[in-house]
Amino acid sequence: MLEKMDKFDPEEIIEEFEASTMDAERVQRETLQKILEENGGAEYLRKWGLNGRTDPESFKACVPLVTHNDLESYIERIIDGDDSPILTGKPITTISLSSGTTQGKPKFVPFNDELMQSTMQIFKTSFAFRNREFPVGNGKSLQLIYSSKQFKTKGGLAAGTATTNVYRSSQFKNTMKAMQSSCCSPDEVIFGPDFQQSLYCHLLCGLLYSDEVQVVSSAFAHSIVYSFRTFEQVWEELCTDIREGVLTSRVTAQSIRTAMSKLLKPNPELADKIYKKCLGLSNWYGLIPELFPNAKYIYGIMTGSMEPYVKKLRHYAGGLPLLCADYGSSEGWIGANVNPKLPPELATFAVLPNIGYFEFIPLREFVEDQEQGKIDSGFLPMEPKPVGLTEVTVGEEYEIIVTNFAGLYRYRLGDVVKVKGFHNSTPELQFVCRRNLLLTVNIDKNTEKDLQLAVEAAGKLLADGKLEVVDFTSHVDLSTEPGHYVIFWELSGEASEEVLKECCNLFGSILC
């Protein structure tokens, strides 16, 4: 069992991955069989008349493709305390809050021990390949991670974000301890009640162990960028804390103060060293390797909605490699980054064939028929049939369908991916976009990527004024005719009216 793990052999993990991907089709059939044997007695699967069959052909013939809306009533019953076998053979005891919403309400998805084991398998696999290229010793890791509080549902189930459910698990702690350098920050900082106070103390802990830090990481690129933007504002205060050995009064949470008091001792030499380094930087370029001279790389999710933060992250990273984390969602994991040397923009993820059963809806033919008017707008279009994991074609785009051990069967994840190649017989996927994240005005359809490129292009107009885009979001305003895009962006300073008008004109030319 994972919770009893006391050693970690990266080469053994790689061998297991290579073996499972040599005949991914066979592993997929075995994985589906195991999922259906374990959960065949669940109400949801009985409804579709599988009658004990576990082969892919029967499964696809009987069980329909679904979205979260189709499962919501089942999940609500679980949340309310119904412990009968509804979606899974064994009762679900934990619920994850997805980052998405359903009609404005948080989206809940099941979380169980099997999903936790898949998470650890993904983490171990990617670390093994990462460590082969960028070996780390027995130093420390500055993990800019945060765990919000779990809460109890009406039926008494533990609920929280997927990352919270993972971080609070003993399996996570034991696996991380076995496979990589220890975290700089004590648990009281990670599980602190206030995000800003925890962030400040993460930075402080990193500085206290600055010569030992070998990895700087977070779940998302945005978190790393935000952390070092904050550092720009509080670095002198951090130096004061280190010099005097006393934590700033801005941190009021007693649990954090108590934990930090055990680490802080007056260290004027370290404080002066950090102070001089900060004064010597030009516009904070290369801040991370300057603070942590033994760091090997920076690690986090850098694809999809995180891609806009890569440019600023590179600024802080200087020459340090940016390594993209793995591919998954609150609903479950898909693949591991087994090519860590690829830059974030080119990152691919090899699907692990034994953590779930995967299908792929081809998109090219469907999109082409729509664009050429072959699909009558008065009728619901017929999508192409999904293909199996080993049946995808390099260069084509697909929507992913997931079946896993946590009660999701032929679940439309909503992600669009492109097949970039194969690792043995399992595909290596590149994330393209969320299929439902389209800004649509009249016949114009713009993806998340289109918006990112437009913001990046318009942001270049700010450079002369030494300004930059800190963050942005958007929506479609159909309250007036014609409808239009509304883009909100946060700038690092005040821009002139003339420059802002130029930016708006550029947005219009790119998005319309």
Automatic annotation (TrEMBL):
One of its GO terms (cellular component) is cytoplasm. Keywords: Ligase. Pfam families: GH3, GH3_C, GH3_M. Residues 350-434 form the GH3 middle domain. Coiled coil: none annotated. It comes from the Eukaryota. GO terms for molecular function: acid-amino acid ligase activity. The keyword Ligase applies. Residues 449-507 form the GH3 C-terminal domain. Belongs to the IAA-amido conjugating enzyme family. PANTHER family: GH3 DOMAIN-CONTAINING PROTEIN, JASMONOYL--L-AMINO ACID SYNTHETASE JAR1. This is Uncharacterized protein. It comes from Nyssa sinensis.
